[in-house]
Amino acid sequence: MRTWRLPARTARLRLTVLYGGMFLLSGVGLLAITNLVGLGGTRVSRSAPAGVPPVEPATLAAATERIARLQAQLADAHAAQTRQLLVGSAVALVVMGVVSVVLGRVVAGRVLRPLRMIITATRRITADNLDERLAVRGPDDEVKDLADTIDGLLERLENAFAAQRRFVADASHELRTPLATMRASLDVALAKPEPVPEQTAALAHRLRAELDQIDRLLAGLLTLARARHGSPPGRTALPLGRLAAAALDDRAAGLAAKELTVDASGVAGGAWTRGDPTLLTRMVDNVIDNAVTHNHRGGWIRVAATDGAAAELVVETGGPVLDQAQVDRLARPFQRLGADRTGSGDGSGLGLSIVAAVAAAHGGALRLRARPDGGLAVTVSLPPAEVPAEVPAEVPA
Predict the structure, then answer these.
(1) 345 three-class SS
(2) Which of 139, 143, 204, 209 is the most exposed place for a label (fewest CB within 10 A)?
(3) What does the mean pLDDT of the chain come to?
């Protein structure tokens, strides 16, 4: 059953009620004054005119009767005039009510027109075009002050995003260089002809593993920063299904080591979308890595790519029943379910947060669902794209 809802209490509605009420009260006052003046000026005088000579009784009786008839006719005419005036006033009041609402809405629209222009321009400005400004012209009133304040805020946001981009560019070089130096020093120390003590070699291998972990963590942080605050993604047409198939092929050794069963029959190279090839490839790789890493030996993975209102990549895994409240937090950085529930404690905790950031940067979304039978279902939805006549070079064969 369709329920009737009140209109939203917008500023235009409130101004319409205010202006319409003012116009309506003005009309009511005007009609009231008109009625008072019209009704007050129709009183009948019953006194005889001065200077009229007295008449005979017979003639007086006839005159009295005639006067009575004239007074009755005059009273009837006065009553009819009064009724007509009241009906006309009621009709005029209804018309004034409608006109008051229309005039109130028109006046409210003209008053709020600069604000609507500011709202439209502000919604059009995103993280990709922070260099745009409202630049409202007009008198120095409250509306122009509001627009100038928003322009100042946009300028500060642009500077903040530019600082983020500079940090990403600088950190990519400044932080990776010392890691590469330390890794090379360990390799040189282990490659010396003199025999290396077993304890020293074990320590060096452990340090090398930690350096690799730090390198992966740094790469994840840089990718996350680039997806959230980097330059706008490119617009190359790519199929999510084919990217997922390539990711599964690259991880064939890990799948075999864990004895995982993979069902990729629903991939078939579908789910075309547009975006940055590097970021989309990293996004799909992270989804597949999450399915492989956080899976039990002998488990299963099901991958499907579908076209429709959105290009969707769905990756499902088996396992124990998970808590949906905890699953919802997995898209945040450094959030894990724990080795006792996912089968592995490896990973930096950035995989799904990178997936969420890349999907959001391309106008999509990440959905995580705890399967009722156990395990996790990861769905990435992106805006669809038409299949190009020529497959781009970035698309895996």
Answers:
(1) coil
(2) 139
(3) 79
